[in-house]
Amino acid sequence: MPEPQGAHGATSETTSATTEPTQYGFSYEYGVDIYSIVSNTWLPIRFISSVNPTVSPKEVDAATYDDNGADHPVRVGETPSLSFYVQMHRLADGNFLPEVETLLAATTPDAVGSNGVVKVRYYDKPVKGKPNPKEAYEITATVSAERAATGNAELSGWNFTLNGQGPRARIVNPETTKVQPA
Questions:
Q1: Strand 41-44 relative to strand 30-36: parallel, antiparallel, unpaired?
Q2: C-alpha atoms less than 13 angstroms from C-alpha of 156 in its C-beta half-sphere
Q3: Taking CA 158 as the corner, what is the angle to CA 157 and CA 159, rounded to the nearest 5 degrees?
């Protein structure tokens, strides 16, 4: 029988006869920041949802006759990517939020070479409790943008996909350096 999950946003302690007490993790407990070369700071990507980091192994086949014709993949690297949705929010001057402008700038026709990449970090960001110090990564990536919500009367936004250049780098989870409330 499933454990009750409690109110939305609340932490719920669960126990089982075979496990220690745990807390549920929620889909919205993930942070994504983009590095701004203009302000030389990390900007949180606000109004974000559907955050989906993926890592595919980069493999070569190391099969020999000993494998009797079967594949023998060996991981030699990785191919990271990060996809997410961001709601459209306009500022008084007509521009979008700075973090969205940074993402969109990497998709313009003249954004080639180093002008077509961004640096982002993504990490565990629980509402309550301690963040996982090992769940924090940084990637340099190219950007694909797709307009979302194209119906006749919908809240607009974008679906972004960031394809990593090289492997992820494990970083210190920025949430672990924040003072946690008592």
A1: antiparallel
A2: 9
A3: 140
- pLDDT tops 80 at residue 181: no
Q: Is 138 helix (H, G, I), strand (E, B) or coil?
A: strand
pLDDT number for residue 178: 79
What percent helix, strand, coil does the chain show, rounded to 5? 10, 45, 45
The residues pairing with 50 across neighbouring beta strands, listed in sequence order, are none
Q: Which of 57, 53, 23 is nearest to 135 (CA)?
A: 53
User: How high does pLDDT run on average in the chain?
Assistant: 90
Exposed/middle/buried for 98, CB within 10 Å: 0-12, 13-18, 19+? middle
Dihedral angle of Cα 70, 58, 146, 140, to the nearest 10 degrees: 180
More confident residue, 182 or 29: 29
The pLDDT score that the predictor gives to residue 166 is 94
Residues 145-164: pLDDT tens digits?
999 988 899 999 999 999 99
Residue 9 phi, psi dihedral angles, 5° rounding: 85, -10
